Amino acid sequence: MPYAVNTMPRPRSLTPDQLAAAALAVIDREGLSGLSMRAVAVELGISTMALYRYVQDRGELEALVVELVLGSVDSTPPPLTAGPWRARITLLVDRMRDTVAAHPAVLPLTMSHRHRSPGVLRWGETVLGVLGEAGFGPEERIIALRALLAYVIGAIQQEHLGALSGAGTAAIAELPAEEFPYMTEAALGARSLTPDREFHGGLALLLDGLGR
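Request: output the structure for the sequence above.
Response:
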């Protein structure tokens, strides 16, 4: 009697990049709140239990996503020929903005996973180096780095989730001017403000506040 042939397919072996890409696809489609082990398993075409072979929980998926997105940020120290420290910091901030602009929903994860993401750590190391060369002390460097991270995260989220060209600005412009004179004036003027001017204008104000 011939042996029975096992026709059951072998379980797939998935790489960290494949897991991260599936989780990122869920976030891009459903937002950060839609990320779950089950949703990623469905995206991969496997069972939820099978996904647990690769990651322990949603937190590990988040860390993989952060590294997939931010791991490609260019953290090479800008040369001195790029200009004074402000110009070099602006270049580093622009690199991060350009890289993560396609996935703004991921940005809140950078704060909770910054200590585990080599991409975030490399970027932070380069920023701290530039600040150190500019004469910032240890405590000043910490404050400046966190302020820059907070600005980048908040500004990109506003640009993509609450743009000045959106319905919110139009609604504010229609408020009664006698009750909200400054808000209505700002909303009317905001219509001509491009995302680049808004982003770099805010960054310039932050860098002015850092001094030097």
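Residues 1-11 have pLDDT under 50 and may be disordered.
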